[in-house]
Amino acid sequence: MSNAMIINGKEIGQEIRKSVAEEVAKLKEQGITPGLAVILVGDNPASQTYVRNKQKSCEAIGIYSELIKLPEEVSEEELLAQIRSLNHNDNIHGILVQLPLPGHINEDKVIATISPEKDVDGFSPVSVGKMMLGQETYLPCTPYGVMKLLEYAQIDIAGKHAVIVGRSHIVGKPMGQLLLQKDATVTYTHSKTPDLPSITKQADIIVAAVGRPNFITKEHVKPGAVVIDVGINRDENNKLIGDVNFAEVEQLASHITPVPGGVGPMTITMLLYNTVQSAQKTLSQDKKH
Ligand code: NDP
């Protein structure tokens, strides 16, 4: 079997960012600068890196980004008050709370306080409900990014069997929903699924969102399957590796995403995309008044 086609998330992400930057320029001509507020609680190093990358990516395409840094011991009420104030701030079109939050803060409550109009991460119960119903909303960035990768790689989804490995709220669950909306037959698998390879081997499309390095091997993959690797793990040399054993699986798959350079760049891309969409909505609302 020949090697798989590589789905290049870096290139696809750049192409989308270019068109998002054009939309930003158009909005600026009309007096609107899209704004994203990022709330970071405490000083978790990984969260700091993610937040810095999000800010840099905003700045690179002209989105105003505001970082609100709160100390680890901030009270839940203070954090909620910050979010409520951002909900009413006309310069801010998207609000993102970097997770995880310290243990004394109820994450669900925090996420639910973000106005659905500014929930560019798509994590709030209202956004999730609307997504389930196929209503217009902000789609969660990582699974949305995967859908864009599939679209750019011209992968047929309708009628295909998609097997999702992982069922987290931010990746696995919404991933299955988005594929279902495009008429895939979807199977969810997770840590309690017995004999996982017997299921993934039936898949035309596998999405691995497990968080275990090299977990998906050639035993899991049917020849010709499309394999999407969401995983971001570090090996013993601190090198980024995915959930898929790339060297093995690329011999079998028809298409595969690498790590890094696959799904990773798409997550921030879709965050920028959602933020600009939100700013565009305020423009059309202004016109109505
Ligand atoms: P979670 O830890 O929240 O979820 C992992 C899922 O994998 C769970 O549903 C779990 O099952 C399942 N799982 C664990 N072990 C097995 C197993 N042996 N067999 C089958 N399923 C298993 O992780 P996330 O969804 O947040 O993230 C997954 C990966 O994606 C991580 O590597 C993360 O770093 C990466 N990620 C990448 C992003 C990107 O931008 N590319 C964005 C977000 C995440 P159960 O529910 O039963 O526990």
Automatic annotation (TrEMBL):
A Pfam family recorded for this sequence: THF_DHG_CYH_C
Spans through the membrane: none
Catalytic reactions on record: (6R)-5,10-methenyltetrahydrofolate + H2O = (6R)-10-formyltetrahydrofolate + H(+); (6R)-5,10-methylene-5,6,7,8-tetrahydrofolate + NADP(+) = (6R)-5,10-methenyltetrahydrofolate + NADPH
Keywords carried by this UniProt record: Amino-acid biosynthesis, Histidine biosynthesis, Hydrolase, Methionine biosynthesis, Multifunctional enzyme, NADP, One-carbon metabolism, Oxidoreductase, Purine biosynthesis
Family matches, as CDD domains: NAD_bind_m-THF_DH_Cyclohyd (cd01080)
Residue ranges of every copy of the Tetrahydrofolate dehydrogenase/cyclohydrolase NAD(P)-binding domain listed in the record: 140-281
Origin: domain of life: Bacteria
Enzyme Commission no: 1.5.1.5, 3.5.4.9
Every Tetrahydrofolate dehydrogenase/cyclohydrolase catalytic domain range: 7-121
SUPFAM superfamilies: Aminoacid dehydrogenase-like, N-terminal domain (SSF53223), NAD(P)-binding Rossmann-fold domains (SSF51735)
GO MF annotations in UniProt: methenyltetrahydrofolate cyclohydrolase activity; methylenetetrahydrofolate dehydrogenase (NADP+) activity
Residues holding NADP(+): G166, R167, S168, I232
Pathway involvement of the protein, from the record: One-carbon metabolism; tetrahydrofolate interconversion
PROSITE patterns: THF_DHG_CYH_1, THF_DHG_CYH_2
HAMAP family: THF_DHG_CYH (MF_01576)
Family as reported in the entry's similarity comment: Belongs to the tetrahydrofolate dehydrogenase/cyclohydrolase family.
Subunit field text: Homodimer.
Function field: Catalyzes the oxidation of 5,10-methylenetetrahydrofolate to 5,10-methenyltetrahydrofolate and then the hydrolysis of 5,10-methenyltetrahydrofolate to 10-formyltetrahydrofolate.
Stated name of the protein: Bifunctional protein FolD
Organism: Ureibacillus aquaedulcis
